[in-house]
């Protein structure tokens, strides 16, 4: 049965009304809710979170700039915010296949200066923010995935509907079926993170990206390690560029030393890569074998794993932030600063700016209209100025890593020393990531070494550490527009790249029993990274929300 048929047979849905509904309990969504309650305590605010609890789906490096948090909650230190480990040192390394060159401190661009920042486990920060929001009277509903945007007769957003529960693989309700609910609001805030599935629909419906640069993404794969005590350096922040990436593939790694002998270890691969044989997961495993990285990890133990898409297009790729009845905040819009490798401060700030536009609109009796004050405030903010200074970062790397590294130095080290606050030129990206792949026969296959189970690992043992779980008797949330395309096009032309770009082993080509192959989708493995929705060369894969509460259950990632 289609969703429309289910609704017609089992509806109507129950509805709950709020002043504001927020989709996503990440930094942006929770900042919106907290700021609204600070400005207008009697405003009714509901936050929907598809994870089992706030923080369950949160994954980030992360080095956090506390500027926005201080604006939102000035007493965060006294209130026990889990920003425990100040940054104590920065290292930037250019890796060759064996050796490494460290960039002298005097030549480090300001974007790599983390003095005053903190190494954090962002999932823990989000959990703490949720507690602050609930203390102010915000209603948070974990385990409820927003599956549908609701519109009024004029086309404005009037709220969202949660997904149905208890739908079997055959698409029919089974025992335990529960119809989704409608959460209606005067204004709806979309804070789903990078490549939000509702945000994607809204951008298309309202043409919010018209005239903007094509958005570009990366895939961040992260492991949490418990280090040998003798190799722990709390507060040390290490970034790497170069090997194992080639000249045309954007990417780099990080090792962030936390307190308590822990380290966040991660690798970022641009999803604009061209070689269909490339596997971001395998590149990350290979990177760990470099002597400059191995030295941090030997004698340690991997205790966590996860992956998430990163939105990297910057200011020139930002869509319009407001539309009738709603707004986009944080990475649902794309406000991460890729040059600084930071997004949580931007997410918090956009959430605050959105709330500061919504509160007076509600006080004036408005609803379902365009919140023009939000993009205006954003354009006048310190965040906009920060993103304007970094607006060319990813675009330069699309011309090769040598040019990208050189121009990063020019724009973020040389120009500031010449008194130029922001580059006088602007680059634009016109090619979306999924159109960048070469045909498989045009490039050399990449042969990756087998994992050793000590330093390097396979996908399935990695997914196990993410505590990912989905109700098995439900329709796959990785949907295909045309079931014939994976074999007829992706396998035939690109050697089945979905079997490599997915970091969780969701996609496999297996024998079909008739001498051919078919695509098998292991949806229960999905860590909700969204790389398939972004990188599929035919845009045939569409990620939709599974039942609420499914997916990874990260512990402080």
Beta-strand segment tally: 24
Largest sheet: 8 strands, mixed
Overall average residue pLDDT: 96
In CATH, the homologous superfamily of the domain at 3-72 and 124-212 and 319-389 goes by the name FAD/NAD(P)-binding domain
Count up the helices: 16
| Structural shape | globular
CATH hierarchy class name of the domain at 3-72 and 124-212 and 319-389: Alpha Beta
Rg, Cα atoms, Å: 23 Å
Strand content: 15-25%
| CATH architectural arrangement of the domain at 3-72 and 124-212 and 319-389 | 3-Layer(bba) Sandwich
User: In the CATH scheme, what's the topology name of the domain at 3-72 and 124-212 and 319-389?
Assistant: FAD/NAD(P)-binding domain
Coarse structural class: alpha+beta
Distance between the termini: 37 Å
> Helicity level, as a percent range?
25-40%
Walkthrough of the structure:
With 557 residues, the chain is of the alpha+beta class. The chain has a domain of 230 residues: FAD/NAD(P)-binding domain. The protein has 16 helices and 24 strands. A hairpin with a 4-residue loop joins strand 5 and strand 6. Helix 2 runs parallel beside helix 4, helix 2 runs parallel beside helix 8 and helix 8 packs across helix 9. The radius of gyration is 23 Å and the shape is globular.
């Amino acid at each position: 049965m289609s969703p429309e048929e289910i609704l017609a047979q089992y509806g109507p849905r129950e509805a709950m009304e709020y002043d504001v509904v927020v989709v996503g309990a990440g930094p942006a969504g929770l900042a919106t809710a907290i700021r609204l309650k600070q400005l207008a305590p009697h405003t009714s605010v509901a936050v929907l979170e598809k994870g089992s609890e706030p923080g369950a789906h949160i994954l980030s490096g992360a080095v956090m700039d506390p500027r926005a948090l201080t604006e939102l909650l000035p007493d965060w230190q006294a209130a026990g915010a889990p920003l425990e480990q100040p940054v104590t040192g920065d290292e930037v390394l250019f890796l060759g296949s064996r050796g490494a060159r460290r960039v002298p401190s005097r030549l480090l661009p300001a974007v790599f200066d983390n003095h005053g920042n903190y190494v954090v486990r962002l999932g823990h920060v989000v959990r703490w923010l949720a507690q602050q929001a609930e203390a102010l009277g915000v209603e948070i509903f974990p385990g409820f995935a927003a599956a549908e945007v609701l519109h009024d007769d004029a086309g404005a957003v009037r709220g969202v509907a949660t997904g149905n529960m208890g739908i079997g693989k055959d698409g029919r309700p089974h025992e335990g079926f529960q119809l989704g609910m409608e959460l209606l609001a005067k204004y709806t805030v979309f804070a789903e993170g990078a490549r939000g599935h509702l945000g994607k629909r809204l951008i298309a419906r309202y043409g919010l990206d018209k005239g903007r640069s094509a958005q570009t993404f990366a895939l961040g794969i992260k492991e949490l390690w418990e280090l040998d005590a003798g190799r722990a350096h709390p507060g040390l922040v290490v970034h790497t560029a170069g090997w194992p990436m080639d000249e045309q593939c954007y990417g780099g790694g990080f090792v962030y030393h936390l307190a308590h002998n822990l380290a966040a270890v991660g690798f970022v691969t641009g999803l604009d890569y061209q070689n269909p044989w490339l596997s971001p997961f395998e590149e990350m495993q290979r990177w760990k074998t470099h002597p400059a990285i191995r030295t941090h990890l030997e004698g340690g133990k991997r205790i966590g794993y996860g992956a998430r898409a990163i939105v990297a297009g910057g200011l020139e790729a930002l869509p319009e932030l407001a539309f009738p009845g709603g707004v986009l905040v944080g990475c649902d819009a794309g406000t991460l600063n890729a040059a600084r490798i930071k997004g949580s401060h931007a997410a918090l700030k956009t959430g605050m700016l959105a709330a500061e536009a919504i509160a007076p609109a509600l006080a004036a009796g408005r609803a379902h209209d365009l919140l023009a004050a939000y993009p205006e405030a954003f354009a006048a903010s310190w965040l906009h100025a920060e993103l304007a200074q970094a607006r060319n970062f990813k675009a330069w790397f699309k011309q090769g890593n040598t040019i990208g590294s050189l121009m990063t130095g020019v724009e973020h080290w040389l120009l500031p020393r010449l008194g130029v606050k922001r580059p006088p030129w602007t680059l634009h990206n016109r090619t979306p990531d999924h159109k960048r792949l070469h045909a498989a026969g045009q490039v050399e296959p990449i042969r990756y070494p087998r994992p050793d189970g000590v330093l390097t690992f396979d996908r399935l043992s990695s997914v196990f550490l993410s505590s990912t779980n989905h109700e098995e008797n439900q329709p796959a949330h990785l949907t295909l527009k045309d079931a014939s395309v994976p074999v007829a096009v992706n396998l035939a032309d690109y050697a089945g790249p979905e079997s490599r770009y997915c970091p969780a082993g969701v996609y496999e080509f297996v024998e079909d029993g008739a001498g051919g192959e078919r695509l098998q989708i292991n949806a229960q493995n999905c860590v909700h990274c969204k790389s398939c929705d972004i990188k599929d060369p035919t845009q045939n894969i569409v990620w939709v929300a599974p039942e609420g509460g499914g997916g990874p259950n990260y512990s402080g990632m």
